[in-house]
Amino acid sequence: MSVPPPPSHRADSNSASDEPKHLSDADSSDSVLENSDGVTQHDLATLRHVRDRVPWQAFSVAVVEFAERWTYYGTTNLYNNYIRAPLPPGSLDGSVARADRALGVAGALAMGQEKSFAIRTFFVYLTPFLGAIIADTKWGRYKTICVFTAVIFLGHIILVASATPAVLQKPETSLGLLILAIFVMAVGAGSIKANVSPLIADQYTGKMRKETLPTGEVVIVSPSITIESIYLYFYMAINLGSVGAISASFLARDNGFWVAYLVPTCVFAVVPLVLYGCRKYYVITPPRGSILLETFRVVCVCLRERWSWNPIATYRNITRAGFWDPAKPSSYNAGEVPAKITWDDEFVGEVHRTMEACKVFLFFPIYWLCYSQIDGNLGTVAAGMTLHGTPNDLIKNLDPISIVILVPIFERWIYPGLRRLGINFSPIKRITAGFLVAALAMVYSAVLEKYLYDLSPCNNDQPSACTSADGEPNAAPLNVWIVSGPYILVAISEIFASITSLQVSSRDRSSPRLTTMCREYAYTKAPKRMKSVVMAFSSLQNALASALNFALTAVNVEQKFEWLFASFAITATIFAGLFYWTFQDLDRREAELNLIGTGEREGFVGERLADHPEKSA
Q1: What's the rounded Cα separation, in Å, for the pair 335 and 467?
Q2: Where is it located (predicted)?
Q3: Residue 557 main-chain phi, psi, to 5 deg
Q4: In a domain, 85, yes or no
Q5: pLDDT at 522 > cutoff 60
Q6: Helices and strands counted in the chain (H then E)
C-alpha cells in the first residue's frame, strides 16, 4: 500500500509557481513534473528511485493467476502426447504399464505430429478483444473475469469427459469433445487474459513522490518501478502455477489422461473462491463505455479518408502528417461535426499516442513463434531420446522453474544493480535482449536436432516414433535432459521480453480500462483510459502468432525440425535489430513518455460533445 509523503514534500496545487508542467515543456529544474506529488526535474535526475509497497490485493490476484495457470499448463502440457501418440500396449486410458515406463510414452489418439500441432495451435487466445469489450461496456473487469471463469470450468469438465476410458474407445468422439473443450477454454482464457493483468495493476494507486528513508536518504518512490515489481511477481505466480503442473506428466503416464485432466480441474476451483472472498477489497473499475470500440471508430474515420487500393499509396497516406485530423471535432466548422464523432480532440490525441505505443506489438508474433517451440515440438524431440523413466513432456516445466528461480534474482539484484551503476537497461533494450536470447534458444534446438538425426537408429525419419524390430521403443543414445537448454534460455528471454511487455503496457495509469503482455512498454506509455485497448492488442499478438504457426503446419514435422528451428533463430535475430532500430528514439524519451496521459480525466467517450459544452472551450 502506498504511504503518503510528509507535508513538506507535497506540491501546493493552488500555487501558481508550482503549476505542474509536462517534462518536455519544463524550463527549470524546479518545475514540478505533471501528475507527480512534488517531484521536480532535478529530483528525477539526482535522487535514487525505489519501488513502493505492493498492496495485498495485488497478491490475491496473483493467487488467482497461479491457480488458473496450474490448470492451463496441467492440461495443455499433455495435448501433444495425447493427440500425437497411440494408446500404449494394453492401455485403455493412455497410461503406460509399470514395466514399460522407462521407455514408453503416454498417448491416446495416434494422430501424428502434424495433426497434433494443428489442433493445439488453432484456438490459442481465440478472443482477445471479447473480454475487453464486455468489461468496458457491460460488466467491468471483475465481473467479466468471474463469468469467464465459469466458462473455463465448463471446458475442463468437457476435457475430462473426452479422456475417460469409455470415450477413448471411440476416437472420433474423443477428438470431437477435445476440440470442443479447447474451443470453450480458449474463449474463456482469451476473455480473462484481457482483464486479469490490468486488474492487478489497478490495485496500486500511488503517485510518484519523494520520501525520506530511516537512513535519512531522500528517494523517489516510483510507480513505474512498483508496477515493474508487481508484474515480475505476477509472472512468477504464472510460472509457479506452471511448475505445479509437473505432476500432470506423471499422472498421465501412471494413471491415464482422465485423471491427469481431473486434478487441474479441481485446482481451478480455487479461482472462484479467491475472487468471491476478496470482492469487497478490490479496486474495481465499473464499465464506462467501450474505449476499445470508440478507438476502432476513431481509426476507421481516419482510414476512410486515407484508404487506397494501392497498398503503397495507403502506407504513404497513413504516415503523412494530418492523418488523425478527420477524427478531430476541431477540424470542422461549428455545427458541422458529424454525428458519428462522439469524442473530443484530446481523445483522438490519446488514440494516436496509444497506437504509437502499440507498435511494439507488431514484432512480438515472431517472438512467440520461437516460444511456441517449447510447447510441443521440443517435447517431440525429447520423445526420441533416452528417457530413463522421465516423461518426455516433463522437461518443458524447466521453463517455469527457471523463471521462478530467476525472477527474484533479476528483481532484487540484477536490475537494481544496473540502476546503481547508472546503466539504463530500459524496456526497449530488455525486449531486444529477449529476442536475441530466444534466437539463441533456437540455435541450440537446431544443433540438438542435427545430433538427434545423426544418432537415432531411424535417422531423421520420426525419431520420436522409432522402434526396434520387436516393436520396442528404440531411442537415440542422448540423455533427454540435454534438451533442457532451450527451455532455460527461453525462460531468460521471457524475463526480458514478455514480462517487460506486461509492464510496459501497464505502467501508465491513465484509465481504468487497460487490458493484457509488450505490456510493460505499451501500458506505461499509453494514456490512462487506453489500458483496455493496449491489453487487447497485447493478447492479439498471441493470436497472430498462433495464426502464423497454423500456416506453418506443413513444416512442423520431425523431418524438418532442424531447418524450422534454424529459420526461427535467423528471423528472431533480424527482428531484434529491427525492433531496436525502430524504437531507439522512444528509448531515449523513456522518462518523458512515462508521464504522458497520467491525469484523472476520464473523457466523454460515447457521449455527444454538445452535451458537455465545457469541453468545447
Answers
A1: 79
A2: Membrane
A3: -125, 155
A4: yes
A5: no
A6: 25, 5
Question: Does residue 176 have a pLDDT over 90?
Answer: yes
CA dihedral in degrees (561, 563, 565, 570; nearest 10)?
Answer: -170
Find residue 86's DSSP bridge partners.
Answer: 108, 109
- Give the model's confidence band at 171: pLDDT under 50 very low, under 70 low, under 90 confident, else very high: very high
> Beta 218-221 vs 209-212: how paired, if at all?
antiparallel
- Residue 459: left (phi > 0), alpha (psi -120 to 50), or beta? left
According to the model, what pLDDT value does residue 603 have? 43
Distance CA 367, CA 569 (A): 10
Count other C-beta atoms under 10 Å from residue 170's C-beta.
11
The alpha carbons of the chain give a radius of gyration, in whole angstroms, of 26
**Closest by alpha carbon to 338, among 308, 301, 303?**
301
Task: Give me the pLDDT at residue 167, please.
Answer: 95
For 480-548, give the DSSP string: GGGGHHHHHHHHHHHHHTHHHHHHHTTS--S-TT-----HHHHHHHS-GGGHHHHHHHHHHHHHHHHHH
Residue 6 covered by a domain: no
Question: By three-state DSSP, how is residue 339 classified?
Answer: coil
Q: Which of 28-37, 56-65, 111-120 has the lowest mean pLDDT?
A: 28-37
Residue 191 lies in a domain: yes
pLDDT tens digits for 273-319?
A: 999 999 889 988 777 677 778 888 899 999 988 888 888 888 888 88
16 Cβ contact partners less than 8 Å away, ≥ 6 residues apart = none
What is the model's pLDDT at position 125?
52
Q: Beta 218-221 vs 48-50: how paired, if at all? A: parallel
Contact present, 158 and 182 (Cβ < 8 Å)? no
Higher pLDDT, 610 or 496: 496
List the CATH number of the domain containing 234.
1.20.1250.20
For the chain, the distance separating the N- and C-terminal CA atoms, rounded to the nearest angstrom, is 38
Amino acid identity of 117? F
How far apart CA 107 and CA 168 sit, in angstroms, is: 11
Name the residue range of residue 194's domain.
Answer: 56-290+351-593
Give the pLDDT of residue 237: 83
Distance (Å, rounded) from C-alpha 393 to C-alpha 372?
Answer: 14
**593 has pLDDT over 60:** no
Count of structural domains, the chain: 1
**616 within domain boundaries:** no
Q: Is residue 415 within 8 Å of residue 425, measured between CB atoms?
A: yes
DSSP 95-112: ---GGGTTT----BB--H
One-character DSSP codes across 224-254: HHHHHHHHHHHHHHHHHHHHHTHHHHHHHHH
Q: What is the DSSP string of 126-170?
A: --TTHHHHHIIIIIHHHHHHHHHHHHHHHHHHHHHHHTSHHHHTS
Model pLDDT for residues 31-50, shown as the tens digit of each residue = 777 777 778 888 888 888 88
Average pLDDT over residues 156-184: 94
